[in-house]
Design brief:
- The chain has three helices and three strands; from the N terminus they run αβααββ.
- By secondary structure, it is of the alpha+beta class.
- The chain has a three-stranded antiparallel β-sheet.
- A hairpin with a 6-residue loop joins strand 2 and strand 3.
- Helix 1 packs across helix 3.
- The termini are far apart.
- 11% of the residues are buried.
């Protein structure tokens, strides 16, 4: 249920723009809150529902909806 809630939040934001940042999803700077968002993001990425991109170590994470990349 938590994963679905986070996916719904991401889809809602992405209906208005192309990229959502991890920092936009967290409600406060507490470590527990960051983990509560990050772990479901990993599951969504593994399920190929979102793409995660981080340009540098410790920088914000860009989240987009997964797009099939046929080669």
């Amino acid at each position: 249920k938590l994963i679905k809630n986070i996916f719904d939040r991401i889809k809602n934001v992405l209906s208005k723009k192309e990229v959502v940042m991890f920092s936009e999803l967290i409600e406060n700077d507490k470590k527990e809150n960051k983990i509560a968002i990050f772990v479901p993001l990993l599951h969504l990425s593994n399920q190929q529902k979102v793409d995660l991109n981080q340009k540098e170590h410790f920088s914000d994470i860009e989240i987009t909806l997964y797009e099939s990349k046929d080669l």
